[in-house]
């Protein structure tokens, strides 16, 4: 039996599994998913789990039943021999051969060389780390201080959710820029800033976190007491992808052909946060890419000639939450900017549709 191995059950890998049902596979192929968890996690909602406003069960979905699950963590890939090295509960250096491979290992925190950041901050980049963050926040006594480092989408949603879940906490949001959410239109950034001002979340702009220690962080070397520091100030591709002996871009994403596979390795595809793509990484982009990878796989199995170019991956927009009642975002460009209750309802609807189509 030949093997299509999918490394990682994130949004891209999930889309590949969903669109390659038993009837879509050649008779001599099976799909094997390598992941350490038995369910798909909705990473876009990790901020809510960390803040305690959503339960663990609320942000997971079952993997497709026709996929064989191999519990483990990948540590290395030999593209020439088509072998994956991984660790499981039973072995530390188990190997798994593949015929086709989809690398969807996601991202991990990037600490930018800040001393103490890795050791003394909490994370929302994995389910395991988010659970630890939730536990730490839940155990903080009243009037404790929480610092969120990084005011991109994840940091903003987390800071807002913390304010709603723990009114007794002092919440600070640190960002290097003049304004938060620089990737959004200015009026959306202003709207979110006003929301934070109204809800007593302190925004520290033009910050430069030079060090993190136990119980404190240093902004421009000024010590600021903090009972918990949560790091949302940047991500990088998973270690396995960064250390793969192939060409990477300046951000260490793997450079691919127009057909989403590694140059010289037409059987090894990369999806999501590990791939060098024309748009910023997102769940929506990973899904779009996963759909195109499925198209290429089907053509390869049928022996069809691959197209010279692939269709443009058009994104519908980005929505963010400000607690459970307000939100912000763009729909089809800056002219489609939405704020307030409408934006929050739209995001809730998108999440409901995703969970519905994932069998939740």
Throw out a few tags for this protein:
single chain; 360 residues; FAD/NAD(P)-binding domain; six-stranded mixed β-sheet; 9 helices; 23 strands; NAD(P)H dehydrogenase (quinone) activity
In summary, what is this structure?
This protein has 360 residues and is an alpha/beta fold.
The order of strands across the largest sheet is: 5-2-1-9-20-19
Described by strand count, sense and barrel closure, the largest sheet is:
6 strands, mixed
Report the CATH topology name of the largest domain. FAD/NAD(P)-binding domain
The CATH level-2 architecture of the largest domain is identified as: 3-Layer(bba) Sandwich
What's the pLDDT, averaged over the residues? 95
Number of strands: 23
Hey, roughly how much beta strand do the residues contain?
Answer: 25-35%
- Please identify the structural class as seen in this structure: alpha/beta
Q: Given this structure, which CATH class of the largest domain is correct?
A: Alpha Beta
Radius of gyration: 21 Å
- The shape is globular
Euclidean distance between termini CA atoms = 31 Å
Task: List segments where confidence is low: pLDDT < 50 over at least 5 consecutive residues.
Answer: none
Total count of helical runs of at least 4 residues: 9
CATH superfamily membership of the largest domain: FAD/NAD(P)-binding domain
Instruction: Name the helicity range.
Output: 25-40%
Number of domains: 2
Protein name: NADH dehydrogenase
Pfam families: Pyr_redox_2
Cofactor: FAD
GO molecular function: NAD(P)H dehydrogenase (quinone) activity
């Amino acid at each position: 039996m030949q093997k299509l191995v999918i490394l990682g059950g994130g949004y891209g890998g999930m889309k590949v599994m969903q669109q390659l049902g038993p009837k879509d596979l050649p008779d001599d192929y099976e799909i094997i998913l390598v992941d350490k968890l038995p369910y798909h996690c909705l990473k876009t909602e990790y901020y809510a789990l960390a803040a305690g406003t959503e339960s663990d069960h609320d942000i997971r979905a079952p993997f497709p039943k026709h996929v064989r699950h191999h519990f483990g963590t990948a540590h290395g890939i030999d593209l020439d021999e088509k072998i994956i090295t991984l660790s499981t509960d039973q072995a530390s250096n188990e190997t798994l051969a593949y015929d086709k491979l989809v690398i969807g290992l996601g991202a991990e925190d990037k600490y930018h060389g800040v001393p103490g950041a890795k050791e003394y901050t909490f994370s929302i980049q994995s389910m395991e780390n988010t659970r630890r963050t939730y536990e730490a926040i839940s155990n903080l006594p009243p009037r404790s201080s929480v610092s969120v480092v990084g005011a991109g989408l994840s940091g903003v949603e987390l800071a807002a959710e913390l304010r709603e879940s723990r009114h007794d906490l002092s919440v600070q949001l640190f960002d290097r820029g003049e304004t938060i959410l620089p990737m959004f239109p200015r009026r959306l950034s202003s709207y979110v800033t006003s929301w934070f001002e109204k809800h007593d979340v302190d925004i520290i702009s033009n910050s430069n976190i030079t060090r993190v220690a136990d119980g404190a962080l240093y902004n421009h070397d000024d010590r600021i007491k903090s009972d918990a520091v949560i790091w949302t100030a940047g991500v990088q591709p998973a270690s396995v992808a960064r250390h793969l002996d192939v060409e990477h871009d300046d951000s260490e994403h793997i450079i691919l052909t127009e057909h989403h596979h590694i140059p010289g390795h037409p059987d090894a595809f990369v999806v999501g946060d590990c791939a060098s793509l024309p748009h910023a990484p997102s769940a929506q982009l990973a899904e779009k890419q996963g759909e195109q990878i499925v198209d290429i796989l089907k053509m390869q199995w049928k022996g069809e000639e691959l197209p010279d170019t692939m269709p443009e991956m058009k994104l519908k927009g980005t929505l963010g939450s400000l607690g459970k009642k307000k939100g912000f975002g763009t729909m089809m460009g800056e002219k489609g900017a939405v704020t307030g209750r409408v934006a929050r309802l739209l995001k809730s609807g998108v999440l409901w549709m995703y969970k519905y189509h994932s069998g939740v």
